[in-house]
Amino acid sequence: MVSPYATVQKIAAEPGGTATVIPVTNSLERLNKEVKRRADVVGIFPNEGSITRLIGAVLLEANDEWQTQNRYMQTEPMAELMATGSKPETIRISTAVA
């Protein structure tokens, strides 16, 4: 069975493969800052429902932005991986204490 790591290396080595650098960002922290920024603009909320609606709107907007951004994984190499029919390895971890 071919390991997933070897498959990723093979795809990355091919010309036009997915060997791109993905910048590391703390997206959750950035999302929290955006919610705080929007809440600070409003200042005082009359009830819990209003803050829930604001946070929901911010999360929906972030989701829409995420979906429309460039894909980090191209669909063609992923389709090739799925077409191989290989199943992922299952690792069982014992919960018994020694």
**Spans where pLDDT lies below 50 across 5 or more residues:** none
Q: What is the beta-strand fraction? A: under 5%
The total strand number stands at 0
Largest sheet: none
Roughly what percent helix?
55-70%
Mean pLDDT score: 77
Shape: elongated
SSE string = HHHH
Roughly how many Å is the radius of gyration?
A: 21 Å
Spatial gap, N to C terminus: 32 Å
Structural class: mainly alpha
How many alpha or pi helices? Answer: 4
Question: Which properties best describe this structure?
Answer:
elongated; single chain; mainly alpha; 4 helices
Question: Can you describe this structure?
Answer:
With 98 residues, the chain is mainly α. Helices cover 57% and strands 0% of the residues. The chain has 4 helices and no strands. Helix 2 crosses helix 3. The mean pLDDT is 77. One of its GO terms (molecular function) is DNA binding.
What is the topological layout?
Blueprint: H1 4-13, H2 27-42, H3 48-68, H4 75-83
Helix pairs in contact: 2-3
Quick take:
The protein is an all-alpha fold and 98 residues long. It has helices spanning 4-13, 27-42, 48-68, 75-83.
